[in-house]
Amino acid sequence: MKADIRVALVGNPNTGKSTLFNTLTGLNQKIGNFPGVTVDKKTGYSQLPDGRTAEIIDLPGTYSLYPKSKDESIVFSVLADKSNPHRPDLVVVIIDATNLKRNLLLYTQVADLKIPVIVALNMMDMSKKAGITIDIDLFAKKLGVPVVPISARKVEGIDKLKSVISFANKIALQEPSIDVNAIAPQLINQISEELKLDNPYYALQLAHQHETIKFISPAESDRIEELEKEFSFHSQKAQATETIARYNFINDLLYDTVKVPETAKDETLSNKIDKVLTHKVFGFIIFLAVLLFMFQSIFSWSAYPMELIADLFVWVQNSLHHILPAGPLTGLLVDGVIGGLSGVMVFIPQIAILFAFISILEDTGYMSRVTFMMDKLMRKVGLNGKSVVPLIGGFACAVPSIMSTRTIENWKSRMITIMVTPLVTCSARLPIYVLLIGLVVPNRNVWWLFNLQGLALTGMYIFSLISAIIVAFVFKLILKSRERGYFIMELPVYRMPRWNNVAYSMYDRAKTFVFQAGKVIIAVSVILWVLASYGPGDRFAKIEQKYKQPQYSKQLSPDELSKAIGSEKLENSYAGVLGHVIEPVIKPLGFDWKIGIALITSFAAREVFVGTMATIYSVDGNAEKIESVQKKMGSAKNPETGQPVFSLAVAFSLMIFYAFAMQCASTVAVVYRETKNWRWPAVQFAYMTVLAYAASFVAYHLLK
Amino acid sequence: MTLSELEPGEFGIVKEFTDLEMSVKLMEMGCLPGEPVTVSRRAPLGDPIAIQVSGYQLSLRKFEASTIILQ
Fold first, then answer.
1. pTM given for the model
2. Lesser CB count within 10 Å: N end or C end of chain A?
3. A5-166, what's its fold?
């Protein structure tokens, strides 16, 4: 779509900026990248009343143009880079009308860059309720820009805002706020002269940010550095001077335009809620209850739609096998590509439900209270209060949980959270644990009420949490902080969640997952399909011939025959050959080549383990039934020793391997997508594999 | 005295800061010299704390609060 005018949305966090963005663009939005940085770029299109189309860019929420995080640093670059063809023609600054003073700081900074500006005064309904009176006409006159009162939540004033956007001037008409030149007169003059700049505030911003911004040349940056030394410019002192001057200007501005009553009503209500929700005892109990409910819902609500999606794909695969002629191409399409696609799609319900919860928790303001309560505990292991939600979500699935770490502003805490989340026992490990525990742990009660098998399973869950915490602590020691750890954070007033935003966030995350992580998952499953369906040389042909001989075809039923062929083919496939190749490596862990095949195939997804075991032991009857797989595996004997293959030591060694190893292509893909660097998934894969090997080795030799 | 020494419910006026880097961030958030601040509550584990400043609620760690000197 071609846009006639480009509009950037700028504002503090918690001002309803994304609600306004969603209201303006509807589903007509996409997420891309800002060139060269790992920040998501949200753009969308909006139809203006005069028939023209506006491209809307949603910039990350920030309190000032001086960035405190990577996300925030993009704001100045987008607004100031004159060489960028996507530079906005117009900036809409969203201001929370219940907190004008702090919100106006960012406005004055943006206005001083001399880009045409419109002010959208959001949350007018809340502001009126709180008894705040604003003389909007006088306010607009003093600023010299159009001021549009809106309520993005209630969709009030949006049409007016659109028409003001369509009438917006091409020239910046705003009144200057502070005397920028007074902050560093000689430096600003010199930079303006040498770089031929006409805006003193732009020159000052370059002085502050020249080391990190990408749109000036290294030579220019070096020259600015020289000039700073010459005029002994101190960045932080200058920022402090500027901020104080801006607040003086804002106080003058608000003096005769805005009347705020002594205490706002909403605050006291918020305080009452806080007394309960952040209470020493109830606070934790409520939080635990919220988590339990969330965890339960992700498990139980997603079960039905996941089954439906899986069944649908099985149906599609079966029908295609009937329609299409048998052959390698059909196999590749139906079992490789569509099989891979099904592996992507089944995650959608879990992702959507987790993000619905997260969006509600954030929208209501509860998330920042969770952070507030948990910060001290989590800080000890290098995490952050906000790491709690992804870690707990990891019990369901690491994929949506890793996507949810974006709420963690601190880079180091976020990386540690991403690195340890896959250690938490996800739902895909459950069938493996159930299978193996059922095989080796006796089903009886100890101490009257505890079932031994249940205890073993609970043990695996607790074990995973403890290992995640220990690994987090190790990463805390290894990783270097990029930024000083701040915890200066707004605790927004409690509000009702916006169901629209919840729906957008579910849609958005599911879409991002399917399109970005989906590619990698499909690729991996195609590779694995090829490895499992083809073998070196003429081995497959020989198997086919062997089973055509009468002693097989007469004695076995067609069903048994195809199972026997399938099992022998898998052994002779590339995956089977690989299983034999890695056998010496995994032997110290107690694994044979058959388990080796399962380890290789379950790289795509852990749950493949059960299916692979079913094929290898060519289970009679329904392969889906865990009991029949279990029976076959239980009766399997080691040909050398005559002992059962799955002893207590082997089963626990295998479970511990699955507890640590990164056997999930989706997680690898999503870690890459979130960090935008292959190094992180590589490091994660390496440390988890080493840990898995070492822990399994120890477990096997202790239990043997 | 510093902000970290106030008990919940107590009130003070910001005088100055001991840490320049932190002060820049705090001032941007509306916590400026001359501004009244009230400690609303402590987190259940005693740290961080929540303060009321410039018309909204801000949470910060005790260490960060100790860089704010009150009048």
1. 0.80
2. N
3. Rossmann fold (3.40.50)
